[in-house]
């Protein structure tokens, strides 16, 4: 299968910016079902946002008060209460299990990349995903460890192994920094041998259909194709 025909991985593990979604729904309460689902996920995953130093914003309380002051938004208040209950019941256990999973998985990833640094070319995205997920879990624990008091499972908000996760972050970051030439060379060659080729085919099809102006878009894309090694193999002088 050609690289440009591969399906993108699902974004189920993507980071949820709690502040952005809370702000979005308060400014425009009438959200589409898809965006509303993301907003609910944000409320179910976090109870507070750090404002500055030790000052935090309790998002369920503030959001509930906001919608309670508006007429006709009783359903939103009920949604907030439901999300809060879901957070208190499931979120701590979920994040504890996620940190355990990341410790094992990221350690394996670090060992593989240290043994075979050439894999950082095609698998760089996995390294960045690991760093992002570990960062989110550490930030989540720091935010909630001292601000979740009414819980039946306080052990979910204490992690004596958090230092190991931080250590793994530094190890993966060091691998990425030390092997940047490998990543750069891989994606330069990928751009020239795959993206530029398929873009050339697209230009030819559009040219035949006369859907692109020769003096505008077509010219710009042709320059891009030529500049990225379409007419010959790319030569990258990178010392690894």
TrEMBL record:
> A Pfam family this protein belongs to?
Nckap1
Q: Any idea what this protein is called?
A: Uncharacterized protein
């Amino acid at each position: 299968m050609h690289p440009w025909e591969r399906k993108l991985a699902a974004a189920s593990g993507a980071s949820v910016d709690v502040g952005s979604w809370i702000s979005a729904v308060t400014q425009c309460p009438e959200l589409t079902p898809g965006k509303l689902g993301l907003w609910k996920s944000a409320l179910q995953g976090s109870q507070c946002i750090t404002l500055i130093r030790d000052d935090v914003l309790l998002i369920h309380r503030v959001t509930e008060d906001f919608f309670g002051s508006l007429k006709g938004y009783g359903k939103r208040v009920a949604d907030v209460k439901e999300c809060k209950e879901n957070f208190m019941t499931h979120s701590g256990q979920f994040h504890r299990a996620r940190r355990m999973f990341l410790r094992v998985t990221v350690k394996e990833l670090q060992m593989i990349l240290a043994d075979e640094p050439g894999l950082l070319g095609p698998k760089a995205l996995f390294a960045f995903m690991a760093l992002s997920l570990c960062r989110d879990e550490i930030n989540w624990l720091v935010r909630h460890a001292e601000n979740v008091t009414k819980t039946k499972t306080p052990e979910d908000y204490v992690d004596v192994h958090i230092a190991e996760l931080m250590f793994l972050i530094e190890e993966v970051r060091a691998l990425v920094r030390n092997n940047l030439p490998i990543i750069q060379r891989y994606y330069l060659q990928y751009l020239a041998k795959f993206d530029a080729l398929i873009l050339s085919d697209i230009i030819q099809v559009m040219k035949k259909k006369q859907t692109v102006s020769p003096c505008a878009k077509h010219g710009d894309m042709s320059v891009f194709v030529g500049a990225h090694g379409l007419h010959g193999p790319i030569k990258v002088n990178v010392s690894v």
